[in-house]
Request: fold
Amino acid sequence: MKVLIVGGNAAGMSAASQIKRQKPGWQVTVLEKGPYISYASCGIPYYIGGQVESAEDLIALSPEAAVKKRGIDLRLQSEVTAIRPGDGEVTVRSGDGETSEPYDYLVLCTGALAQTRGINLEPGERIFTIKDLSDGVAAMGLLDRYQPRKCAVVGGGYIAVEMLEAFRMRGLETHLVHRRPELAKTFEPEVSGAILGEMEGQGIVLNLEHGVEKIAEKDGQVEVHTSRGILAYDLVLIATGVVPNTALAAEAGIQLGVKGSIKVNEFLETSLPRIYAAGDCTETTHLVTGKPVYVPLALKANKEGSMAGANVCGGRRRFPGVLGSALTKFYDLGVGRTGLGLGEAEQAGFDAVKYGITANSKAEYYPGRGDLQILVVAERGTGRVLGAQMMGPVDAVKRIDLYAAIIQRQMTLQEVFDLDLAYAPPFGGVYDPVLLSARVGLKKI
Amino acid sequence: MKVLIVGGNAAGMSAASQIKRQKPGWQVTVLEKGPYISYASCGIPYYIGGQVESAEDLIALSPEAAVKKRGIDLRLQSEVTAIRPGDGEVTVRSGDGETSEPYDYLVLCTGALAQTRGINLEPGERIFTIKDLSDGVAAMGLLDRYQPRKCAVVGGGYIAVEMLEAFRMRGLETHLVHRRPELAKTFEPEVSGAILGEMEGQGIVLNLEHGVEKIAEKDGQVEVHTSRGILAYDLVLIATGVVPNTALAAEAGIQLGVKGSIKVNEFLETSLPRIYAAGDCTETTHLVTGKPVYVPLALKANKEGSMAGANVCGGRRRFPGVLGSALTKFYDLGVGRTGLGLGEAEQAGFDAVKYGITANSKAEYYPGRGDLQILVVAERGTGRVLGAQMMGPVDAVKRIDLYAAIIQRQMTLQEVFDLDLAYAPPFGGVYDPVLLSARVGLKKI
Reply:
């Protein structure tokens, strides 16, 4: 059997490795258009910020190891330009020109692309996006070459938050330019407010409600034309989100779903036989609403890749869906979210209530405690938990995982309160903040 | 209505506060034999160790606030010496001599006592136990008065571990004297080994397999007579566990259960009408085995107290039971446990398997990462998780709560692996250690 995998990052390499583990005799070819495989995209901001020394540190599996230890036929700088499902072939463009590659099974792991939708963008070296490791390395090159003093991040999501930290940690005058009065909608307004407050505390200049119309280089600077005037910087990062990279799939007649992502069933099968898809290019199911969603996050990509690989080998492993669980930090402020925000819950038809609590992250008297705030979205009446967000000390917000389990297992606030959580003063109060959030919630529903 | 509450710490004050909240007009009298109420017993080692400045910091509610803000009739230094259920009265011994107090409802929150079972103990000032805040304050007095250079802790449980840290942080030559080759059975052998290793690294002298027969003062020192000879110290703390303080209940004819703790149903009712019990003096149910257990931990005491109070007021709140979830730390090593150990699982009749994993506590490349080890006990075949223990960086082991939820909700390893946990490099790997532990476990069951 011959399996072709398009894309060599998290999903693609997980799929390839899984298949070679289960079927060592099969030929597994990974076609990666860029020079890198299997890297930690989420680590790029920490490389730019200086906490991670070298881009190499972000590479989980070297091309040599993929080939020699795992027996994967790895082809870098090889872009798949067409799929011919009828013939069971793809067209590959590489240094050798265009060739055809046949497949028995095809796994599409084409990921996502940085998007700059709605911005009239004139190409320029000082204007950049960050999606893959090449972008990260290129950004570092720009910082070295131009020695900027003043830079801006356009956008309000995770990458924007993390890159603002990275630039600030390098000592640059750093500006946020964002069209909304708050950060991205993934953050509830309270969380957004806390992050923006921390940004101000760190000297970030906040240009909120600045709709960006045009970005162009002029006289050795970058001009950002906004609804409130022109701002000028030495470098500008556009971090306004990503879109699934699915033109190839669409042209092959594969059915697309939410936001143009590839529609797959829980076994990661696309609408065409012998073609699977996994990772940032696929649609998935929201575990609370049951509705299709596009949530390009790393854990999903890794799990889907591995499961698609297992299913190519004849397995029937199911990817159940996501809650959109995510974490980030800005300096000493950690932030986590899982499940539905209030708006999402209402949109999904729930009679939802949102409330917040503030609790000590360690025992009140124990050194190093901080305030942990928890927002909970619950269904009125039943008390079923639909979503939660947290903000507080970096060492306190991994608790969001407890809420992920709570939501995924459809627990009620009473069931949360009944949990026998662990206590000692260096780790929390007798009633963990999660228990307190449940106790308070029982009076709100 | 008149409610008497015997004992003014976690359970007692929780009950009293709950009743006054629901029934402001009722007379609620707390009879506390000592001088303190409502303090954080678990914080005492950190007071001795110097992380917490004053014993006052450990007091959650001052007597003045209990009386003035909550309207509780608080009587310190008032010991209940007898219950006469037939008459609905108790006998109280205080500075005023012996008096009788009638009750409509009685809530027993008599807590636990430090036990020194099996040790021939000659009374002496330099030999002490630590159970309540008076003990903590007294211990601090001993340290000031005797300025010891060399001290020992006899025992191998949580308090022993924490007090060894406390003495060592004060710069004392510190010895562990313990009868077993490992710490207490609540720690799986691997966890015990890690803690003992960390203790050696911090210069603690480990006298393991030293059964203690006799402890007595001699010539201004304390001699600890062990199965391996006599050891001499300036001060000796005995931390060999606690027993429920239930002589009063027993004499009144109230039914006792495991280890002499007071038998209560899920509504915290004892075997006698109008008498409730809550906290470290009661038996409860283990959430995995369904069997009665004696697990004196702070969260249970607080919840039971509050629920007993609510039920006195006519409520029907249920305390479901415990998993024995607990945390502690020794210097930079955090340790957590929940559910059953392998031995307990086998004893309960489960066909159990135990396995371990080691994972990065943060992304591999992110600064400050450490090794987090997770031990999982699961049922063979079904993959139901029965217990888990963790050891690693202090900021990583609060994850044990996730396992508490997993076990309490009777999840299988497959269901654990399917959880959509949150990821970002400063908080863990893409696959959180808990997900990795589930993935590995799926191959072991």
Remarks:
- The longest strand of chain B covers residues 352-360.
- Chain B is about 25% helix and 30% strand.
